[in-house]
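[job 4471] stage=fold_predict status=RUNNING
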Amino acid sequence: VGFVVLHVAGNLLVFQGADAMNAYAAFLKRDAAILWAVRSVLLVSVILHIWSALELTRAAYAARPVAYARKKSQAATLMSRTMRVGGVVLLAFIVFHLLHFTTGTIRPAGFSEKNVYENVVHSFAIPWVSAVYIVGMLALGLHLAHGTWAAFRTLGFARPGAMPARRRAAIAFGVIIWAGFTLIPVAVLAGLLT
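[job 4471] inference complete, writing structure tokens
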């Protein structure tokens, strides 16, 4: 969650122009040891998160090996119902994103190691690239909203029950992160960033 907050804050520098965005990108790459330490922590976290999700799914299927004849959600939210599919979409998006903006392996609009601003603007000017990012960010927003809500209960900070204030805060957090990331491709498509 902390990484995502810092990532969206850094990405929003694109609205301050090429110099701010490119300086931020250069800052991130300045110390290779710190960069790779952070990447390692993120990679281990993602692997553990996927493993936990698979274990939780396996336990759920083991608890109910025969599907319901008619499934009717009583308390599930859109956020909770989309966790598995959204997680797969998010994983695919992360792989695409790393190959696109980190390694430059996927180059729909060229790639420059030094001009990140240009990479962003030229890529998001292509509608299908913007669509991939917007869908990915929708999955991220839903995933974060449910995850932050569930974290309160999992970590023991909230007792079972509706806890509407915490749920609203988690939803607001998911919407803010989604909006922050989504604003960039939308602004490029609208011609506000060139």
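[job 4471] summary: The radius of gyration is 19 Å.
[job 4471] exit 0
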